[in-house]
Amino acid sequence: xxxxxxxxxxxxxxxxxxxxxxxxxxxxxxxxxxxxxxxxxxxxxxxxxxxxxxxxxxxxxxxxxxxxxxxxxxxxxxxxxxxxxxxxxxxxxxxxxxxxxxxxxxxxxxxxxxxx
Length: 116
Known about the structure:
about 0% helix, disordered C terminus
């Protein structure tokens, strides 16, 4: 299945086909092994196992499983990358979330990561 356009959900979404466009959820987005997403992703939590070429904003935890291939710009609160996952792009930790604040006074930074 291929969907071109915008997916918006108040609950969780699982993608095992192809989505070209924007995917937004107030819950969790799961991209399965056969899933492909190109465009934008916004959600609370995410588990990626498929191929993602997108700008990704996750307010809590993004998990890249061993079969994941992510190319893009991510803004997250927490990131977990399993061995075998491939991430090429930029990663910004969103420090504006009150749950993520600490007494540490380092300057916010953007880190380029390439993992294979």
